[in-house]
Structure formats: C-alpha cells, structure tokens
Amino acid sequence: GNVLVHIDPAAFLRSLSIDTPNNRKYYQSKIFDVVKRYERGDDSTEDFFANLDLLFNGRDGRLQYNHGGKDCLSLNEFRNAILSIVGAPVEGMEEIVRRVGASVPLGLLSNTNPVHFDYCLQTFRVLQFIPSHFLSYQLKAFKPEPEIFARVIGQISLPPGKILYIDDLAENVEAARSAGLMGHQFVGVKNIERLFSNLNLI
C-alpha cells in the first residue's frame, strides 16, 4: 500500500455516505480493529462482514450510535466500501518493479486481506512481476509485529542482511531493521529509482 498502489482508508466512510467529523471520530479506531483482525487472519471473510454489520447496523436493528446514514447498510455496500480504499497504481512503479525483477528475485509483504488481495491480483498488472507474496492473513501476523518478519525470513533461503525491505511507513521499516533486514523508507518514485540505480539493479 502506497508503494505500488495508493491506499486511502478514509474512502471507506465516504463510500457509505457517512463521512462526517463525528463519524470519523467514532468509527475510525473501531474500523481499524475490525480490519486488523481480518488482516491478521483471526477472522474469516464471513466474520469480517458480520463484524461490520454489527458495528454499523447494530444488533436486531438497534444502533448503539446513530451515524446519520441508511437504516441498514448491505453486504454489497460494505464490500464496495472496503474496495474503495484501494486506489490507482503509483505511477512509475510498475516499470521499476519489472526492471528490478529482471535482476533479483522479488517478494511482496503486505498487511492485507482476501477481499483486497483477490481484487488487486485481478486489477494491478504490477503483481505479475512479483512472484512471492507474503500476506498478513496467511502469516497470521501484522506489520510491524516482529513475528511477521521472522516468518518471512523463515521462508526465504537468504540471510536477513541480504534482504532489502521497502515500506512507506517508518515504523515498519524500523521493525524490519530490528529483524536484521536492510530497511528503506519509500518517499517517492524518484527516490526509490535512485536507490536501485545505486545498487546496480536498474
């Protein structure tokens, strides 16, 4: 997210037409908790949508909090809302990935979920150039937890110091470095292109 493809979590409430300051304040942490359980593999897709239904529609039609939107939001509306978070590809990254992939093996480590990743596989060609996918819901861990990096390292036949990890979030980069990986924070396409050029990968 935000390295290969733009991600906008705020699009979730906008898609449901209930994006107000009060709703953001009430829902943001609750949505994060529901999504995190899904992306850590703690909840199935069915559980995930059931949790959203409970959060936004209440139990037996009784809302704990009046969000000011429709009385009952549907499964399809929740699915569209979760997919609305995924934006356009980061311009220029597909070509860089393709060029780097011709020199070294590539892998993707992502906090993601089945709904998002299935959609991304069908939508974004850049993933075709990355043969190894390490997904939070399959690894049962979530960046920046140390466990997720340990599990990836355990599946790669390279010492950690030979693995270059790139992320847009500083906390994830620091966690990768703590696990022994070479960590680099993504701050733009030009910066990452310069990094790969200096490493003679493009």
Write a brief caption for the model.
This protein is 49% helix and 11% strand.
What does this structure look like?
- By secondary structure, the chain is mostly helical.
- 49% of the residues lie in helices and 11% in strands.
- It is built from ten helices and six strands, in the order E-H-H-H-H-E-H-E-H-E-H-H-E-H-E-H.
- The protein has helices spanning 11-15, 21-39, 45-57, 75-84, 93-101, 114-123, 136-139, 146-155, 170-178, 189-198, and strands spanning 5-7, 86-89, 107-110, 132-135, 164-167, 182-185.
- A two-stranded antiparallel sheet has the order 1-2. A two-stranded parallel ribbon has the order 3-4. Strands 5-6 form a two-stranded parallel sheet.
- It starts with a strand and ends with a helix.
Topology, please?
Layout: E1 5-7, H1 11-15, H2 21-39, H3 45-57, H4 75-84, E2 86-89, H5 93-101, E3 107-110, H6 114-123, E4 132-135, H7 136-139, H8 146-155, E5 164-167, H9 170-178, E6 182-185, H10 189-198
Parallel strand pairs: 3-4, 5-6
Antiparallel strand pairs: 1-2
